[in-house]
Amino acid sequence: MTKIALFASGSGSNVQAIAEAVEAGTVPAEIVLLVCDKPDAYVLERAEKLGIPTFAFKPKEYESKEAFETDIVSRLRAAGAEYVFLAGYMRLIGPTLLNAYRNRIVNIHPSLLPAFPGKDAIGQAFEAGVKISGVTVHFVDEGMDTGPIIDQECVRIHSGMTRDDVQTAIQKIEHTLYPNVIKNLLNGNREEQN
Ligand code: GRF
């Protein structure tokens, strides 16, 4: 069983979906740590209910990004984590973490990259009036949502949909796409994601 860590900053619906897929035996992994940079985030309550060990920290309590990432890396290593999956972790990964987990950090982003990178991708797509958006799962590199794409799925934005409707449609896709990509990645099958 591959040991994986999840990183999140918010509600954690993707963490929940991944944990349920692990529990159901569809994703061949053990979630050894949830890393969270917001100690009051709802994802921590979910993790507790799911029985996932957590490390919550406040970046401002460290003197630098290098310092908190060094702490994270040592906790990941202590837990035996082999892969890191970002699930709504709202922070750019720095060289300390990237070098420790080169090609082993994956992110989910709520747009069809390279369109609408960065914050509030759903709002950006909505404001742009695009008719098709979607979800991207990609490897993490130094840039903002720029690493090699692993898989994507599209969502059609119909006229009359509100921003919340788009978000609901996107999150529904995320909750099946991400566990599926993780399953295929851990099974050593990068190309065939479905
Ligand atoms: C998701 O839409 C994900 O694509 C983005 O942040 C959101 C996290 O949602 N990176 P949740 O915390 O998993 O509910």
TrEMBL record:
Keywords: Purine biosynthesis, Transferase
Residue ranges crossing the lipid bilayer per the database entry: none
Pfam families given in the database record: Formyl_trans_N
Residues the entry annotates as binding N(1)-(5-phospho-beta-D-ribosyl)glycinamide: G12, S13, N14
Residue stretches making up the Formyl transferase N-terminal domain: 3-182
E.C. no: 2.1.2.2
Pathway(s): Purine metabolism; IMP biosynthesis via de novo pathway; N(2)-formyl-N(1)-(5-phospho-D-ribosyl)glycinamide from N(1)-(5-phospho-D-ribosyl)glycinamide (10-formyl THF route): step 1/1
Active site positions, chain numbering: H109
Keyword hit for Lipid biosynthesis: no
Catalyzed reactions per annotation: N(1)-(5-phospho-beta-D-ribosyl)glycinamide + (6R)-10-formyltetrahydrofolate = N(2)-formyl-N(1)-(5-phospho-beta-D-ribosyl)glycinamide + (6S)-5,6,7,8-tetrahydrofolate + H(+)
HAMAP family recorded: PurN
Protein name: Phosphoribosylglycinamide formyltransferase
Taxonomic lineage of the native organism: Bacteria, Bacillati, Bacillota, Bacilli, Bacillales
Gene this protein is translated from: purN
